[in-house]
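Input chain follows. Return structure tokens only.
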Amino acid sequence: MSSLHEDKKIFLLELLRTHPQSGQRDMAEALGLSLGMTNLLLKELTAKGWMLMRKLNLRKVQYILTPEGLKELSKRSYRYLKKSIRYVADCRVQLETLIAGARERGASGLYLVGRSDLDFVLESLCHHQGFAFLAAAEKPQENDEKAWFVVYGEDRPETPNVLEYMHPSLASKTKIQQ
């Protein structure tokens, strides 16, 4: 099975946990799948013992997450959380290198233009290192008194994009706007 197929199964388990009253049509819409594919996933979850289907009447079925299904959902959520924490820790190290490099080249702060999923990490690191941090929708004016290290969020097409610094060999590239 593909990773996407497995992801849909886990999302379906989570949906059953949070919205146990959901019908197949609601689930299909939430998953972005056809009704037939959703039905197939429900049957697979039932076959694994992760879910029960109870027929209430000719047209209504109740879907129940089993203790085994909840256990599987918990195990996968824990693995996902561990993986995410490792990723954030790796990003932190690389962004610390980025900030140190910007400081060495004379920048007095980091200016994030646009939105980034890493903005909270950047802000925290700048704060801990005594480095100014500013996030805004547009880049700083040319006559701004501070020499900013400007980096763009993932929502912007301009470079340098914050994700470009997620590889150690790119951390030495800095562009200071004065």
